[in-house]
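[job 4471] stage=fold_predict status=RUNNING
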Amino acid sequence: EQCNTHVCPQDAAWNTGPWSSCSVSCGRGHKQRNVYCMAKDGSHLESDYCKHLAKPNGLRKCRGGRCPKWKAGAWSQCSVSCGQGTRRRSVGCQMGAHKIARESDCNPYTRPESEHICQAPPCPRYAWRAEEWQE
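[job 4471] inference complete, writing structure tokens
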């Protein structure tokens, strides 16, 4: 007859699976992995058998690549010299300092405006005035 067949805590150890890929393609994200308690024979155990051991992290931070961002050029001069006009500028989606990305890669809700109203000084008001004919 066998006795004392239960697993002893010293026969258990934490084991980890592989890290997942980063949760984001750009910016800050996380990786995760399974962490489980295992007996020497490779069988899975309840976590209580490993609670006396330091448990490895199952989550860690990671960074994806650079996120595309909107890049806005300088505003043009006002389109009129008096009254209400328009100023324009170029707006494009960029990956890093120099690489141009597709507009669909950038968030459409954060796109800077490319046109806005400008107010130049008021236009002079001219009026026709009829006078008598001169000789």
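[job 4471] summary: The chain has two domains: 9-63, 69-119.
[job 4471] exit 0
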